[in-house]
Write a structure and sequence with these properties.
This protein is mainly α. It has two domains: about 20-165, 3-Layer(aba) Sandwich (Glutaredoxin); about 175-285, Up-down Bundle (Glutathione S-transferase Yfyf (Class Pi), Chain A, domain 2). About 30% of the residues lie in helices and about 5% in strands. The protein is built from nine helices and four strands. Strands 2-1-3-4 form a four-stranded mixed sheet, with helices on both faces. The longest helix has 17 residues, at about 205-220. It starts with 20 loop residues before the first helix and ends in a 30-residue tail after the last helix.
């Protein structure tokens, strides 16, 4: 199944100049307390009268190799068999006052030829002053941002485009959707957001909750292949992208707690996901590994 993507690219890729905070200042945005941090929350819907209907080749994902929130969606695309349905490109990992940008190391914007991701937001809401983030889902037909709300982009990709998937896994099956959502209510604050709270804020309570949760997860995975049994789901991917980066970043110096490889069953589960042939190509350790961070043996054999 191959769909043709119509791009706005010229023969010469458009790139931003190097990130320079001396010239452009640091990245900031208007934190309007009356508006959500992630201002765009459009949903893909599998019905003909939808604002963003389910159509192959219509949507493009702007992602970042460094970003766990974006990684969730790129994993859905490849594992759900959507590589020929939704296209993906990556912003560069260095940012200044202009926000995320397209530079040669990570490639151009193949859809619009933008040099800055901000241009997609300005095209949607002129003079946009909010947070410019990845992942950003773009509608090629309407020529606007659909969503930058990572918590719904991954669900929509996993469900609303399945009719066009080439094989792939049902990552958000109806019979497990309530359990997936329930785990997110627990693991989102405790782990996915808890890592930042424990590391950056040096919050002892967040650290204790995080370490305790990792212990609970280790026990949970002692007698099952995945978080919800024998099926890989979105619940696993949402946790995994955070733990992939745990010792490479926030816990590089062991300031939060034990390394991931000290949890026998959790570490085995994490390696088993990494070693899936579709998953490994979605990982660029260099994009998120801190200098001097330990390199865990992700290639070590697993029992799963």
């Amino acid at each position: 199944m191959n769909f043709i993507y119509i791009t706005g690219m010229t023969h010469t890729p458009t790139y931003a100049s190097r990130a320079d905070t001396d010239e452009f200042g640091p990245y900031t945005f208007n934190r309007d307390p009356g508006r959500p941090l992630l201002r765009f929350g459009g949903r893909i819907e599998d019905r003909p009268d939808a604002l963003f209907p389910s159509q192959p080749g219509r949507y493009h994902l702007y992602a970042g190799w460094f970003c766990p929130w974006a990684h969730r969606s790129t994993l859905v695309i490849t594992l759900a068999g959507l590589d020929d349905v939704v296209s993906v490109s990556y912003v560069h990992g260095e940012r200044d006052g202009r926000g995320w940008a397209f530079r040669a190391p990570t490639g151009p914007d193949p859809v619009n030829g933008f040099a800055l991701l901000r241009q997609a937001y300005d095209a949607t809401e002129p003079h946009f002053d909010g947070h410019v983030s990845v992942p950003t889902l773009w509608d090629r037909t309407a020529r606007r941002v659909v969503s930058n709300t990572y918590g719904s982009i991954d669900v929509d990709l996993a469900t609303e485009l399945r009719a066009y998937a080439e094989g792939g896994i049902d990552l958000y099956p109806p019979d497990l959707s309530a359990e997936i959502d329930g785990l997110d209510l627990w693991l989102g604050p405790a782990v996915n957001h808890g890592v930042a709270a424990a590391a950056v804020g040096e919050d002892p309570e967040a650290r204790a909750v995080l370490v305790g949760t990792l212990g609970e997860l280790d026990g949970r995975l002692a007698d099952r292949a995945f978080l919800l049994g024998d099926r890989l789901t979105l619940a696993d991917l949402r946790l995994w992208v955070t733990l992939l980066r745990f010792d490479a970043g926030a816990n590089a110096a062991g300031a939060i707690g034990p390394r991931l490889d000290t949890y026998e069953h959790l570490w085995d589960w994490a390696r088993a996901i990494y070693q899936r042939p579709e998953v490994e190509p979605t990982v660029d350790f260099s994009s998120f590994t801190a200098a001097g961070a330990p390199r865990l043996d992700w290639e070590a054999a697993t029992r799963r």
